[in-house]
Amino acid sequence: MDRGVIFSDESGQDNDNRYGAICTVSGYRKNLISLHQCLETIMTDYSKSEIKFKDVKGGLKLKIAKEFVVQGLNEIDSKNIKIHVLVWDKQDARHNIQNRCDIQNLKRMYYKILKEVKKDWSYINDWSFYPDEFTAINWQDDIVKYVEKTKLFNNSELFDAVSQFKFPNYQKAVEKDSKLMYNIQLTDLFAGIVRGSRLNSKEYIQYLENQKNQISLFKENSISISSNLKPKLELMHYFKEESSKRKLGVGFKENNYFETFNKKNNIFIWHYKAKSEYDKAPIKVKKT
Q: How far is the C-alpha of 212 from the C-alpha of 209, rounded, in Å?
C-alpha cells in the first residue's frame, strides 16, 4: 500500500497574534505528488515561486491564490486528499494565563491535529511528515515520537493520555522550505483563510454586506476595510463560495467564522475548546 504523506504550516502562533492556526494536507503519496505538480504548473504559468496568505494584496497574488484554493478544493471533492485546520484563541480560558509558553502550546496543537489526521486515515500505517521550516521545534523528538506511541500515560504531563489507539509509524519527519513545496504553500493559504475568518470576522461580514448592497458603504456604522485587507476578504469569500458549490459543508453563519460540523467531506475545520477547567496551555519553566 502507498505511504501516506502530510504537509503542514502554521499561522499566528506567536504571542503577537490572538488566534493561532495549523493546517495539514494529507493523503496517499501519489496523490500529493500529483497535487504538487498541479500547483507547480500554476506557479510556472505566472513565473512565480511562492504564494502566502499574508502576501495576498490584490492583482496577480490574489489570482494565484484563488487558483491554488480551487485546485485544493477539487482534490478534496475528488477524495484524493484531506485538509484539516485547527484554530485556537489565545484569549480563551485555556490560553489566557500568565507565562503561557506558545512554543510548547504549538507542539500540543500539532499533536492534536496529527492525531485527527491519523483517525481519518486509519487504514494508512506508514507516513512521511513534511512541516514548514520552524527551528524552535524538533519534530521527531517533540511531536512524532508521541504520535507514534500507542499508550501515552508515561508522558501525560505533555500530552493527553490516550489508550487503545493504534498510532502510525512515521518514516520521515523533515522540515521543508515552502518555496520548494507547493503543498506547504497551500496549507499556508488555508490556515490564513480560516484564521482570517476569526481575526477579521466583522470585516468579512461587512465585506459580504458591501457585495450585496453598495449603499451600506455609506452607513454611519459601517466598518472600514483597508485596501490591504480587502483582497484577503475576497479570497475568503471565494473559498466559501467554491466550497459551497462542491457541497463541502463549510459554514460561517452560526458562529461568524468558517467551520465544518463533520468530516465526511474531507475538510475538517476545528476551533479548539478546552475539554475541562484543567485543560490549560503550558507555561514557561523558569531556568534554575
A: 5
Which three cell numbers, joined as nine digits, stand for 128? 512521511
- Each domain of the chain, given as residue ranges in start order, spans 4-271
- pTM, to two decimals: 0.88
CATH of 4-271, one of 2.60.40.1580, 3.30.420.10, 3.40.50.720, 3.40.50.2020: 3.30.420.10
Q: What angle do CA 34, 231, 195 make, to 5 degrees?
A: 70
Q: What is the DSSP string of 29-79?
A: HHHHHHHHHHHHHHHHHTT-----GGG--SHHHHHHHHHHHHHHHHHHHTT
* C-beta of residue 258 within 8 angstroms of C-beta of residue 75: no
CA neighbours within 13 Å on the CB side: how many for 83? 31
Please, is 35 exposed, middle or buried when counting C-beta atoms within 10 Å of its C-beta (0-12, 13-18, 19+)? buried
How many CA atoms does the CB half-sphere of 12 hold within 13 Å? 25
Interatomic CA distance for residues 259 and 268, integer angstroms: 8
Angle at 175 between CA 173 and CA 176, to 5 degrees: 125
Give residue for cell 507514534: 148
Alpha carbon distance 32, 115 (integer Å): 19
Would you report the helix, strand and coil content of the chain in percent, each value rounded to 5? 40, 15, 40
Classify residue 243 as exposed, middle or buried by CB count within 10 Å of its CB (0-12, 13-18, 19+): buried
Which mean pLDDT values do the consecutive 10-residue runs of the chain (288 residues) have? 90 89 98 98 97 94 98 98 97 78 88 91 90 79 69 41 48 86 98 98 95 64 89 98 98 97 96 80 72
The answer for residues whose C-beta is within 8 angstroms of residue 40's C-beta and 6 or more apart is 182
